[in-house]
Design brief:
The complex is a heterodimer. By secondary structure, chain A is mostly helical. Chain A is built from 20 helices and six strands. Chain A is 68% helix and 3% strand. Classes of the chains: A mainly alpha, B alpha/beta. Chains A and B meet through α11, α13 and α14 of A and α1 and α3 of B.
């Protein structure tokens, strides 16, 4: 079995990601009953998106990493690990052997769990399977086993389903989204770590009185929510502190602004390519589970417009930078960079735990990201290796610096599973399954918003 | 003048791209031409909005809702209530 999987892995690795995922998308579309011309178009569009993503991610290459290193040395901060951000990471994850196979595996897992009645989440958000694929890919490279990579990814995705079920009552109540759950490994994973701290800080009366006004924060800091401006500012600051010439300072600013704008546009095309498959999968599943009560699993992006989430997400920009500097003495080397623009994914599912109090949400976010930054640094060699391996067919210059991905390396289930899969494989698999059993009981016995965090006061997110 | 539609979601790329494909297909079939742009909710500024309609997959702050009509796009992602969504979209775009 291992040998067969290994040769599948080698085969996939030798083919370019430009070829594999598009074929998977096309075949899957056909299997799920899509019209042949549309399935072909979806496949082609994903290939085109990959070309665009890897072209634009190249902007983050050699020059930025030398400037990053100069910055780390000159400023004495030692922050020399560069965050490439989730847009680039998602494409890289889908381009690995685990990523090539994650969509059919994720859909199959979801169907099996629904049939067995172990989950109530019908996940139509196949895009975010990439978070599981990302973990699977680094496990695959670290252990040399595609099978272990796939198992790790499968466990991560089931964790996402279970966390979605667990939080569904709270999420649908707080955000007024009935029938919705969020199987988003990053946002739900951050929530998992925050729950015990939320139980604690909810009891501190003094903190609750300092209510920050989310609308005022959004209007004041809204500019930090514009990636193009944020990119320019970060780029200029980085190059200036690295001691570059004026021309170089401005060029770097514009290049980072370009990365912030262009990579996501390309990811949008990938999304467009995957949408028909997601639709076909949704129709396929809803038809078969008609009459059953379930939550529709959506991207945590649907929560982000809530005032408390936006305000705390924006406040995470300065907080992540300050945390990175403060934690440099205890081992952080991550320079928060591209993912600074998306602190909202960290705070999206934290806000409901503290009834939308901005200050408390930010405290939870700071705890999650404080721990997270240590792991983004620890996982950087594995991630750099993944970029280098995948980059054989893509165009990211490697060998200059260490890269990380804040969105995923700071996600508690991701780093926990990565380290779990460094143990002997029997241990990893058994403990992994035990975790799933534990989460299952947690979600059945202590649903959030019902047994835990059942706020009495009227929640008002909209 | 062509109507302007903002597609708004948490990232300006994720769910808004899913909406875009469907809305464009639908409007093509009905021969309606609009200018569509995608935006992230955090960057919306009530004073700078230049749209006749916002279709959103996320929660829109109240001050934005005061200046432009907002249509909930979540039915397009869940598939539940899609027909009603399109009826409403048609109605809003054919106004005036």
């Amino acid at each position: 079995m291992e040998a067969i999987l290994q040769s599948i892995g080698d085969f996939l690795n030798n083919l370019s990601p430009l070829i594999v995922l598009p074929i998977v998308v096309m075949v899957l579309g056909l299997v799920l009953g899509q019209r042949p011309d549309r399935a072909f178009r979806s496949g082609l569009l994903t290939a085109v998106a990959f070309v665009g993503i890897f072209l634009t991610v190249g902007l983050l290459g050699e020059k930025i990493s030398t400037i990053g290193q100069a910055f780390a040395q000159r400023t004495g901060t030692g922050l020399d690990v560069i965050d490439i951000g989730w847009p680039a990471a998602s494409a890289l994850a889908f381009a690995t052997p685990v990523g090539n196979l994650i969509i059919p595996i994720g859909i199959a897992l979801n169907i099996i769990l629904l049939v067995l009645g172990l989950t109530q989440t019908l996940d139509v958000d196949i895009w975010n399977f990439w978070h599981a694929a990302f973990l699977g890919a680094i496990v695959n490279l670290a252990t040399g086993s595609l099978a272990l990579g796939l198992i790790a990814a499968a466990i991560a995705q089931v964790i996402a389903f279970f966390l979605a079920d667990w939080s569904a009552p709270l999420i649908s109540k707080y955000f007024k989204l009935p029938g919705v759950s969020i199987p988003h490994l990053q946002s739900a994973g951050c929530m998992l770590l925050a729950v015990p701290f939320a139980l604690l800080i909810n009891r501190i009366p003094f903190l609750k009185k300092l209510q920050l006004n989310p609308d005022r924060i959004r209007k004041r800091l809204g500019v930090l929510g514009e990636p193009i401006v944020l990119g320019l500012v970060i780029g200029v600051l980085l190059a200036w502190l690295a001691g570059e010439s004026l021309t170089e300072v401005l060029t770097t600013g514009i290049n980072i602004a370009a990365v912030m704008v262009l990579v996501p546009r390309m990811v949008g095309i990938l999304m467009e390519g995957l949408t028909p498959v997601a639709d076909a999968a949704r129709e396929f599943m809803t038809k078969r589970f008609a009459g059953r009560k379930f939550h529709i699993g959506l991207d945590s992006a649907v929560l982000i417009g809530s005032p408390a989430v936006i305000a705390s997400g924006l406040l995470m920009v300065p907080i992540e930078l300050v945390l990175a500097l403060l934690l440099a003495s205890v081992g952080n080397r991550t320079l928060p960079f591209i993912d600074l623009a998306d602190g909202v994914f960290v705070t999206a599912m934290l806000a409901p735990l503290v009834a939308g109090d901005v200050l408390l949400t930010v405290i939870l976010g700071a705890i999650v990201m404080g721990v997270g930054l240590i792991f983004t640094t620890l996982l950087a060699p594995a991630i750099t290796n993944m970029i280098a391996t995948t980059a054989i067919s893509v165009d990211i210059p490697t060998g200059f610096a260490t890269y990380t991905v804040m969105s995923d390396a700071a996600t508690p289930p991701t780093y926990a599973l990565y380290y779990l899969f460094q143990t002997p494989e029997a241990v990893a698999i058994i403990v992994g399954l035990l975790v799933l059993v534990g989460l299952y009981f947690l979600k059945v016995k202590f649903p959030l918003g019902d047994k835990l965090f059942a706020q009495e006061e009227e929640l008002d997110a909209r | 003048m062509m109507k302007r539609v903002y597609l708004v979601c948490g990232t300006g790329i994720a769910t808004s791209s899913m909406l875009r494909a469907k809305i464009e297909d639908f409007l093509d079939d009905h021969g309606i031409r609009v200018t569509i742009t995608q935006h992230r909710v955090a960057e919306l500024n009530a004073k700078r909005i230049d749209a006749d309609l916002i279709v959103a997959t996320t929660i829109i702050p109240p001050d934005i809702k005061e200046v432009v009509t907002v249509l909930d796009g979540i039915p397009l992602i869940t598939g539940i209530g899609q027909d009603k969504f399109f009826q409403e979209l048609l109605r809003l775009l054919q106004e005036r």
